Fold this sequence. Notes:
By secondary structure, the protein is an alpha+beta fold. Helices cover 33% and strands 11% of the residues.
Amino acid sequence: xxxxxxxxxxxxxxxxxxxxxxxxxxxxxxxxxxxxxxxxxxxxxxxxxxxxxxxxxxxxxxxxxxxxxxxxxxxxxxxxxxxxxxxxxxxxxxxxxxxxxxxxxxxxxxxxxxxxxxxxxxxxxxxxxxxxxxxxxxxxxxxxxxxxxxx
Length: 151
């Protein structure tokens, strides 16, 4: 992915307008592993910081294309925080840090160079359907969490 300016998607006519006043996690809504991560975040995000978008939604697909990612084979979640996209291991560590203590402790793994941790992330991402399976339908939030999902 090419680094982009913060909020660059606002100037991309192919990306629909959306509310970006909270950090946003864009995830593969058909992946049981990814949906499990979202459920984990929903349980532990006591401040209700995060908003969510499924990669399969028109907005999710547009964001993947905007960042030069494959909009059909979602091998990374995207964390949009203050308009900046974080991918792979960096995105995951930042997501965990946003949950507060004790999840911020996961950031100790950031001492591992990205050239080592991102390939490990990619192995899991490529095999996520084999590891956890795939849903027939996209992730559907519970009524109590529906307001935190965009698009």
